[in-house]
Each structure stands twice: as C-alpha cells, then as structure tokens.
C-alpha cells in the first residue's frame, strides 16, 4: 500500500526556510478503510483529525501535496479575530446581539485554543505580539476607530485602546500613512508552518494517518460508505470532512461546485533590518498590524527583525499577473515604509483564502450528503478560526455537540454564487470599487 515519499512541492516561502524540514507523508497506494476521511491537511482538517484520533476513531487525512501546502503553511501568522467579511454591526443586524456575541466569543476561543496547544505541546512557534493594532490610513479614519472602540465596548465588552498619531510614533508605529490606531487586545503572532507541522505530528502520534500526494479527485457513494478516489487508490469511509478551503476542488465532491470563491493573498518578507533602519522608519513595535483599508495591508516585525508585509493578490495566476501582484505589493510597501524603500525583499509568495457567498464560514453537515461535513470559508482569517472549527466539527461527528450548539453565523451551508463562472469578474469589480473607496 505504501511507497517511498515523493519530492516536496515548495513555494519559496520564508516559513519553509524557517523549519529544518517539511515532512512529505507517503502517498496512498491501493485501497484503505477508515471511519473518517478528511480532505485537506491544513489547520481545519488536522484539528478535526486530531480530536477524532484522540477519541479512538480511525481517521485519515488525504492531502494533495503535503501538510501545510495550502494557506495554513503560507499565511501571515496573525492568530487573530476574524473569519468573516461581515463586521460586528452587520453580524448584529443579521443574527441579533446574542448570536453576534457568541460568534465573537468563539473567535476568542479559537485564539486561546491555538495558544493553549502551543504551550501544552511545548512548541516554540516564534510567537510575539500582544493583540493587534489597526492603523487609520486617512486622518478621518481615526474618528471611525474611536466610534468603533466605543461600540465594541458597549456591545461586546471589548476594551480596545485608541492611539493618536503622536502616541503611535512614540510607541514605534511610525509611517506617513498612519494617523491613529485601535489596539485590539486579542491575538498574537506565530510562525504558521511551525504550528501546522506540530499539529500534524500530534495527529500522527494520536494514531491518525496522513497521506501526502493524494489529491481526491472524486467523492461518490459506495454502499454504506463514501469512496474518495485518488491517483493510486481509494479510501472508503462512513464519514467525510471537507477541509480544502481555498484549495478545494470544485468536483470533489460535486456539491462544492460554485459555492466557494478562492481569492489570492500575497506575502513578502524582507531581509533582517538593522537598528538604524528600524529607527529611520520609526517602526520598532512587534505588535501585528493592519491598516483600515477595505483592501487591507497586514504587516509585522518578525522576531529576527525581518519585516513581513501582506496584501491582497491579483485575480489570475499566470506569470504576468503574479509579477504585477508582486510589483504592486512592493510599491505599496515602499509607499507605507519609505525609509525601507531600498530594503530587499528576500521571500515572496502567495496563497488562496476562501470566500463564500454570504461572507460567512460554514461548519457542519453538508445537506443531502449523509455523513459528509464541511469546515471552510474563513475569509482570510483562519489561523484561529479553522483550528477551533476543525475541533468543533469533530465534536459534531463524535456526538458531543449538535450543529445548533455552534454560533448561528457558522451554521448555514454555502449557497452557490449566481452564475458561478463569473466569480472572478465579480471579484475584479469589487477590487475596483473598494480601491476607490479606500482612497
Ligand atoms: C497569503 C495568506 C496570508 C494569510 N494570512 C493570515 C493571517 O495572518 N491570519 C489568519 O488568521 N489567516 C490568514 N490567512 C488565512 C489562513 O491561512 C487560512 O484561512 C487557513 O490556513 C485555512 O486553513 P484550512 O485548513 O481551512 O485550509 P488550507 O490550509 O488551505 O488547507 C487546505 C488543504 O486541502 C488540500 N486539498 C484541497 N483539495 C483537496 C483534494 N481534493 N484532495 C486532497 N487535498 C486537498 C490543499 O492542498 C490544502 O493543503 C492567510 C492566507 C493566505 C493565503
């Protein structure tokens, strides 16, 4: 059933370079029977597999490439609130205050789960940052941040701090584009590759099986089980977890067709900056940061003094578009951190996040596919959300939880995008519109 591991498909990320080795699990060769098969070895799939394996369930994870090949090994490492493109006011309007509160509490629990895992597993994932700061990119945005802080306190009991421009500069958040800030007292930063590799190691240690280079090309009914087809074999399982997120194939299973929108996000990491360079820019803070643009930039000073700078990607993945994406991100970086305009970018990569039509994640049973569950759609903030949601999904499968025990915003199965073939065009239109609004 097994053969020697195939070579690793790398993307040239700083995270890959920061770990001694990324393990290539063996490919599935032949046929295998498991209670549960998970499609996708990222935070969501592995978190579900870990919980199930620890409960004594026979579980395998089928992964197209290797652990962390998807967004979980490519992200900015902000373990923070989020998971939806709806803001808190929209959540309240749609679901009511109590459900919105439950959803925010769930996000906080996700952050705490990741922190707890790293601490109890003794994993040094290069963590830093106490909370996250949102930086007003226009003077007028500071008053919006102040109003938002008051709203967060009143509605959610969140005590967000406000900093004016002088306070930002004195606390090491210097930049011509930053006119004030809101400090959110939740979250921390980590090296996502170290976290996802540790998570996979725990799955293996608990008895879960991970197959690399085993892309699932079809999911079909086979008696009382589901059958997952891969290149050199198949797995039959009573229960299936869809955890492919922005890398999910639309035909495995067919239910996924037209229901997700993969969107690119890109990251650049500079060479290490000297003390003189840091003070020339006035940026010395280790707090993770993002600006207030709708098409936001996210950035942080890494523990080794490199600077990580992330922003949205383009629409298409051909060489010309990717090069344009890289150049645009680099131009934004130079404009926001002019003192570092000559500092080389040593690593540059991108990955897929997953959007849904209602701009919310889905965690639960897939309609009309008994035994099939999904945990996907984190809208670019999945370090904490995918981790806790994978674990909760395992709780549903084990019978420890009911779908209605989850916050309401997570419960609705993804709807199809209208005229799904035009999804990328909608995205292009949204980028133009939001780019205009961000000015
Ligand atoms: C550049 C970038 C920066 C980001 N920054 C942040 C951040 O700072 N903070 C934050 O919270 N979130 C961030 N995110 C989002 C976050 O990384 C994701 O939401 C999260 O990692 C998703 O985890 P997941 O397990 O759901 O999916 P993924 O990690 O994407 O894993 C899905 C896996 O499924 C596999 N797969 C898919 N289909 C199949 C199939 N048919 N057969 C077999 N395998 C399959 C893929 O190969 C992949 O490995 C970022 C994402 C990107 C791309």
UniProtKB/TrEMBL annotation:
One of its GO terms (molecular function) is oxidoreductase activity. It comes from the Bacteria. GO terms for cellular component: cytoplasm. It holds the Pfam family DAO. Keywords: Oxidoreductase. The keyword Lyase does not apply. Residues 35-394 form the FAD dependent oxidoreductase domain. PANTHER family: FAD DEPENDENT OXIDOREDUCTASE DOMAIN-CONTAINING PROTEIN, SARCOSINE DEHYDROGENASE-RELATED. This is FAD-binding oxidoreductase. The lineage of its organism: Bacteria, Pseudomonadati, Pseudomonadota, Alphaproteobacteria, Hyphomicrobiales.
